[in-house]
């Protein structure tokens, strides 16, 4: 499959994506645990069907030491016993924050409170921005049919 647009060759995309990628770097450097970041990025990408991001975040997570068992169970995290309560709270918030059209009220107060029990304000802020960031990245890739499969861990750092 060929991409509809080459973001790396387009001057407008280059200007905008430079700032977008800087936001991604700031998120990586936030106090939200790295494992949680990768699990959330992967789950949001699974929901949206973004193959590029599923490929990227699976490989980045493995490179950071994440286990295959946990990665394989992200899509079924509710029934899996391998996630901490904090990770479960983050995944639940990520799902509701991604499926806003399905949940007309947005993120439920109970879901928000559960996440706030496990993350301080700075981590919670990073989590919300990460969910939004990933939804944007997914849409950029899906709309332009970016091909997946050849991501190399660390290539965007």
Automatic annotation (TrEMBL):
Q: Tell me which residues make up the Carboxymuconolactone decarboxylase-like domain.
A: 16-96
Q: Which domain of life is it from?
A: Bacteria
- Which InterPro entries does its entry note? AhpD-like, AhpD_core, CMD-like
The cross-references to PANTHER family, in alphabetical order and at most eight, read:
4-CARBOXYMUCONOLACTONE DECARBOXYLASE FAMILY PROTEIN (AFU_ORTHOLOGUE AFUA_6G11590), BLL7811 PROTEIN
Output this protein's name.
Carboxymuconolactone decarboxylase family protein
């Amino acid at each position: 499959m060929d991409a509809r647009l080459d973001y790396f060759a387009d001057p407008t995309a280059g200007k905008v994506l430079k700032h977008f990628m800087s936001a991604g770097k700031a998120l990586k450097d936030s106090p939200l645990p790295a494992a949680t970041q990768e699990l959330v990025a992967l789950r949001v990408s699974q929901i949206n069907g973004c193959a590029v991001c599923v490929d990227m975040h699976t490989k980045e997570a493995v490179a950071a030491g994440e286990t295959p068992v946990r990665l394989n169970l992200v899509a079924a995290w509710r029934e899996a016993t391998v996630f901490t309560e904090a990770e479960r709270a983050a995944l639940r918030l990520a799902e509701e924050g991604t499926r806003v059209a399905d949940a007309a009220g947005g993120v439920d107060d109970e879901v928000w409170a559960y996440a706030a029990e496990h993350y301080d304000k700075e981590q919670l802020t990073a989590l919300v921005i990460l969910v939004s960031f990933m939804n944007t990245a997914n849409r950029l890739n899906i709309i332009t049919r970016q091909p997946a499969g050849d991501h190399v861990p660390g290539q965007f750092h």
